[in-house]
């Protein structure tokens, strides 16, 4: 079965064609800068790479370009659109209505639309991708995989905020969590690797966006992101946890509007706000050369991770494994080392030599005396989306 995995962002389209159940990736592609005259299109098939700069004014034009490429005699992977039997769509926010992978119909699309207020940057683009895919891949099943679904197992003590009850009941204001597809994928890999169905795991997803999840026996019971993808850890451009008094101070003292403050906290804060840079590789390099702002940013980011490790170990009442994943988690030995430093009392001890190993497979980086397994597990949200889509249909 050929499954097209589609991730429609506000100005981008990521895609893969994956043959299931073998999990064979037949091609990978990306369109960036949608809406611009100089959009960037890249497509990879096996060892062949193709790129092009061209005007792609909207998502419809973008998906038409992708379809034309998939059908191309030289770099394509299908002969007709009917060879795509399912399209798996990443949808960021599923609210409290969606706790599992779902076949898309009018009701599902209406529910995604109702959640626009909770994910204004993501859900509208996700729905656009669905509606366009329906017109092109007419014989394929359209399937929604929600970032929030994995976290629907959280107990009320973890997801309810201490604000008037009516806000939860009437407006569904609560913690939902994100990166669920990634956390689910790596935690299942860890459980399979450890051979333990009963387990206490902390999954640390470190990319431009960051989050941590406490996973007990395969189920999410606590996560760092909440109503939106802004709180918790320090991220590339997002502040993470912040005293809400800061918001009102900025609005009153600096005469900032709510929209301006939101823009500051989401796009001008985090590592970028602390250093002027949002790429951890650049920050790490400058830190080693003595840049004090970059050194401070690394200290702040790792301190926040350690604080959550301690909190989640307490909530789990024990810890079997710590997982590092996503771009930074998989590739930055420095951040892993700083995040695990001085956690011996929790049984977490890193091996410096093992921590330098780069691998596409599951890698253990703990010392021989560490009581907790420290695992680096490459995430693959696209494979997880294809897997969930295939399981739903079969």
TrEMBL record:
It catalyses: acetate + ATP = acetyl phosphate + ADP. Pathway: Metabolic intermediate biosynthesis; acetyl-CoA biosynthesis; acetyl-CoA from acetate: step 1/2. The keyword Iron-sulfur does not apply. GO terms for cellular component: cytoplasm. One of its GO terms (biological process) is acetyl-CoA biosynthetic process. GO terms for molecular function: acetate kinase activity; ATP binding; magnesium ion binding. This is Acetate kinase. It comes from Polaribacter glomeratus. The lineage of its organism: Bacteria, Pseudomonadati, Bacteroidota, Flavobacteriia, Flavobacteriales.
């Amino acid at each position: 079965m050929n499954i097209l995995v589609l991730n429609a962002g506000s100005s981008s389209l990521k895609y893969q064609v994956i043959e299931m159940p073998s999990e064979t990736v037949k091609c990978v592609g990306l369109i960036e800068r949608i809406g611009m005259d100089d959009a960037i299109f890249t497509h990879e098939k096996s060892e062949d790479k193709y790129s092009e700069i061209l005007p792609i004014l909207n998502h419809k034009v973008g998906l038409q370009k992708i379809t034309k490429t998939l059908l191309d005699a030289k770099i394509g992977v299908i002969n007709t659109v009917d060879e795509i039997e399912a399209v798996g769509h990443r949808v960021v926010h599923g609210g409290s209505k969606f706790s599992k992978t779902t076949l898309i119909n009018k009701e599902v699309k209406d529910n995604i639309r109702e959640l626009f207020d909770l994910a204004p940057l993501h859900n509208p683009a996700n729905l656009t991708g669905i509606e366009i895919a329906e017109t092109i891949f007419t014989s394929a099943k359209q399937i929604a995989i929600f970032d929030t679904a994995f976290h629907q197992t959280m107990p009320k003590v973890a997801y309810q905020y201490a604000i008037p009850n009516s806000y939860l009941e009437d407006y569904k204001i609560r913690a939902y969590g994100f990166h669920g597809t990634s956390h689910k994928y790596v935690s299942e890999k860890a459980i399979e690797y450890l051979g333990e169905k009963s387990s206490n795991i902390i999954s640390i997803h470190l990319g431009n966006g960051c989050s941590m999840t406490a996973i007990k026996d395969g189920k999410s019971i606590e996560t760092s992101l909440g109503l939106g993808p802004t709180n918790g850890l320090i991220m590339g451009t997002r502040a993470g946890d912040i005293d809400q008094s800061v918001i009102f101070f900025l609005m009153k003292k600096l005469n900032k509007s709510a929209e301006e403050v939101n823009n500051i906290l989401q796009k001008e804060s985090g590592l970028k706000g602390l250093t002027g840079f949002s790429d951890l590789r650049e920050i790490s390099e400058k830190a080693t050369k003595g840049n004090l702002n970059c050194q401070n940013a690394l200290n702040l980011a790792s301190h926040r991770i350690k604080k959550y490790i301690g909190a989640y170990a307490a909530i789990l009442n024990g810890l079997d494994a710590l997982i590092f994943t996503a771009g930074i988690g998989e590739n930055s030995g420095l951040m892993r080392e700083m995040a695990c430093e001085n956690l011996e009392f929790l049984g977490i001890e890193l091996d410096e030599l093992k921590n330098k190993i780069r691998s596409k497979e599951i890698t253990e980086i703990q010392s021989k005396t560490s009581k907790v397994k420290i695992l680096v597990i490459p995430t693959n949200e696209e494979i997880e989306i294809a897997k969930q889509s295939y399981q739903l249909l079969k």
